[in-house]
Every structure is written in structure tokens, then in C-alpha cells.
């Protein structure tokens, strides 16, 4: 719990170095078939500084028309690759009561990339938590309340850390202020990978 928010569970060093390296290999194989793309903001077309890809039956995209989940890569038109078993198992461990995840958004941050304060509310259900895995350089993460104006708290997310946002925390404002260059040797060329597992549609 952080900020008196229930439903935010932080598991520092949840993954050991071996598990982290395996996930980096998994990331590399996913982006071979579903290359990182540069999303743009709806209406303004301003590019995100974070590049993205997805795996799973649905993937999150943003373009001039809006934010949405879709079954195919916006550039290749191919279906997203499946969510790897290791991440399905991580979800089952961290969110044992939730239905299976349908989307895994992959965020790739180079030094200087950030993500403004936002809510994750493009899903059709908020019943399941969002489960996040950080790999590579440490980032400064900011989390607030249900209103944009609520005070925020910052903490660091390091490689191998897992954050589970469920319950009240599921719709909290949050963002990434900064990636701290040179804080991890996991990725040869530096940077940060964040994987977020999500349920998008209500369970049948
Ligand atoms: C708090 N990603 O992809 S992960 C995102 O590190 C996103 O790339 C950040 O915000 C990143 O939407 C933060 C931690 C996280 C994920 C989901 C949340 C925090 C959250 C949902 C609700 C509140
Ligand atoms: Fe988010």
C-alpha cells in the first residue's frame, strides 16, 4: 500500500536476474515479429517518447483517432504474438482470482523518454488488476489519486520489480517521470522495458 491507496501492491525484486534475462530474450523475440511502433496522441498527432508493442489477443494502440485495443499490429497488420507462458504464470501468481490476461502492453523507454500522468481506462472492465514488470534501467514512477489534482507520490521502479494495481488503485493517475540512465546492466544498450498485463473484456 502506498499513499493510503488500497490495491497497490509493490513487490521489489520479484524477479531474479535469470528470470529478468529470460524476459529480455522473450521481449526480443516478440518485437522481431511485432516491431516497436511509435504511438501518437489522438487529435494532435504528437508522438509519444515511449515506443510500444504488445502480445496477446488484444493490444493497446494510440493514433490520431484515439486510444483503443485491437487484435492486430498497426503497422504490420498481423495478429499480436501470444503472451508467453512465463507472463501468464506471473499473472496467475499476482492476480490469482482474475480471469486470464488478454493484453500485454510493452513499453520501451530510451533515456529521456517519459509517460505523462494518466489513467488506464480503455479497458471494458476494471475488475482485474494491471500487473506491471520493470526491466532494465530504474525509473521514477509517480502515482496519485482518482482525480488529476490529487497529490502524487514518487517512487523508483527497478529491474525485476513487479507492481499490481487493483481495487481502488486500478484507476489512479500515474506516470513515469524519468528513466535513470546507467542504473542497470540488463540491457546491453540501456533503456527500460515495462510489461503490463491486462484484462480488457469482462469475463464470460
Ligand atoms: C497505476 N506504464 O503502460 S507501469 C502504462 O512503467 C503505464 O511503463 C508505466 O502506465 C510504465 O499504462 C507504469 C505501473 C502501472 C501500471 C498500471 C497502472 C501503474 C498503474 C494502472 C493504474 C494505476
Ligand atoms: Fe498506465
Task: Summarize the structure in words.
Its cofactor is Fe(2+). The strands form 3 sheets. Strands 1-10-7-12-5-2 form a 6-stranded antiparallel beta sheet, with helices on one face. It has a 4-stranded antiparallel beta sheet with strand order 6-11-8-9, with no helix packed on it. The protein is globular, with a radius of gyration of 16 Å. It has 204 residues and is of the alpha+beta class. The model has no long low-confidence stretch (mean pLDDT 96). A hairpin with a 2-residue loop joins strand 3 and strand 4. Helix content is 13%, strand content 31%. The chain is built from 2 helices and 12 strands; from the N terminus they run E-H-E-E-E-H-E-E-E-E-E-E-E-E. Bound molecules: N-(carboxycarbonyl)-S-(naphthalen-2-ylmethyl)-L-cysteine and fe (iii) ion (FE). Residues 105, 107, 115, 120, 130, 132, 143, 163, 165, 169-170, 172, 174, 176, 194, 196 line the site of N-(carboxycarbonyl)-S-(naphthalen-2-ylmethyl)-L-cysteine.
Amino acid at each position: 500500500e502506498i499513499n493510503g491507496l488500497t490495491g497497490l501492491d509493490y513487490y521489489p525484486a520479484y524477479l531474479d536476474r535469470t528470470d529478468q534475462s529470460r524476459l529480455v530474450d522473450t521481449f526480443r523475440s516478440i518485437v522481431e515479429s511485432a516491431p516497436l511502433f511509435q504511438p501518437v496522441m489522438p487529435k494532435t498527432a504528437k508522438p509519444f517518447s515511449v515506443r510500444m508493442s504488445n502480445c496477446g489477443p488484444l493490444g493497446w494502440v494510440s493514433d490520431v483517432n484515439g486510444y483503443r485495443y485491437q487484435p492486430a499490429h498497426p503497422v504490420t497488420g498481423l495478429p499480436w504474438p501470444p503472451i508467453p507462458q512465463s507472463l501468464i504464470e506471473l499473472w496467475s501468481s499476482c492476480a490469482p482470482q482474475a480471469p486470464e490476461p488478454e493484453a500485454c502492453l510493452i513499453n520501451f523507454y530510451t533515456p529521456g523518454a517519459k509517460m505523462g500522468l494518466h489513467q488506464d481506462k480503455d479497458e471494458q472492465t476494471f475488475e482485474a488488476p494491471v500487473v506491471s514488470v520493470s526491466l532494465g534501467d530504474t525509473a521514477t514512477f509517480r502515482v496519485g489519486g482518482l482525480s488529476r489534482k490529487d497529490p502524487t507520490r514518487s517512487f523508483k521502479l527497478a529491474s525485476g520489480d513487479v507492481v499490481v494495481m487493483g481495487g481502488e488503485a486500478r484507476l489512479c493517475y500515474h506516470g513515469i517521470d524519468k528513466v535513470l540512465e546507467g542504473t542497470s546492466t540488463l540491457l546491453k544498450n540501456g533503456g527500460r522495458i515495462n510489461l503490463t498485463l491486462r484484462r480488457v473484456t469482462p469475463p464470460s
